[in-house]
From TrEMBL:
Repeat found in the keyword field: no
Protein name: HupE/UreJ protein
Origin species: Cecembia rubra
InterPro entries noted in UniProt: Put_HupE_UreJ (IPR032809)
Keyword Transmembrane helix applies: yes
One Pfam family hit: HupE_UreJ_2
Top-level taxon: Bacteria
Signal peptide positions on this chain: none
Length: 193
């Protein structure tokens, strides 16, 4: 197996790992207010998140940025909670203005999530002679993993909204409330306190 394929698969596995479900929760919170026909918006949103975390992941992996791990582990669930709360407070599904806020959330919060990945990736890279290919492969794997989460979640949402008849706003409120509750529990479990 080549180096690119190895790090690509590690990126996918890292995102889809249920032991580290914080990333899954964030992607679900980002998608909760959308429906299947919004797939282009969702892909842009997820890619904005990838751009944000790719930047800080690279900077932190190269030791150009250092942030206290406990602070990052606290801020990650904070980003999830803010995203979920934003969904709860929206009076109706995504509009042009709220869509722009979602892109900013995804990009900015991606910066924070990237810091969380950096220790993991730095330990994997060890003494690799070149970091460009592993970083690229890992980030592409993360993006593919996120798209898998989006596909599963949006298919479920489509079935419940379109076939079963669950109200779109109710769906967004319930999912966002669950995610927010889980993010609060994650915040309380961190070593930041």
């Amino acid at each position: 197996m080549g180096q690119f394929q190895l790090y690509f698969q590690l990126g996918i596995q890292h995102i889809l790992d249920l032991d580290g479900f914080d990333h899954i929760l964030f992607v679900v919170a980002l998608c909760a207010i959308y429906i299947l026909r919004d797939w282009k918006k969702i892909i842009i949103l997820v890619t904005a998140f990838t751009v944000g975390h790719s930047l800080t992941l690279a900077l932190a992996t190269l030791n150009l940025v250092k942030v206290d791990t406990n602070l990052v582990e606290f801020l990650i669930p904070v980003t999830i909670g803010i995203t979920a709360l934003s969904n709860i407070l929206k009076p109706k599904p995504s509009t042009g203005k709220s869509l722009q806020i979602n892109y900013l959330f995804a990009l900015f919060f991606g910066l924070i999530h990237g810091l969380g990945f950096s220790n993991y990736l730095r330990s994997l890279l060890g003494k690799e002679s070149s970091l460009f290919e592993p970083l690229l492969a890992f980030n592409l794997g993360l993006e593919v993993g996120q798209l898998v989460i989006v596909a599963i979640f949006m298919t479920l949402a489509g079935i419940l909204n379109g076939i079963v008849g669950v109200n779109r706003r109710d769906w967004a409120l319930v999912i966002s409330s669950i995610v927010m509750g889980m993010s609060i529990m994650m915040m309380l479990d961190t070593k930041f306190w």
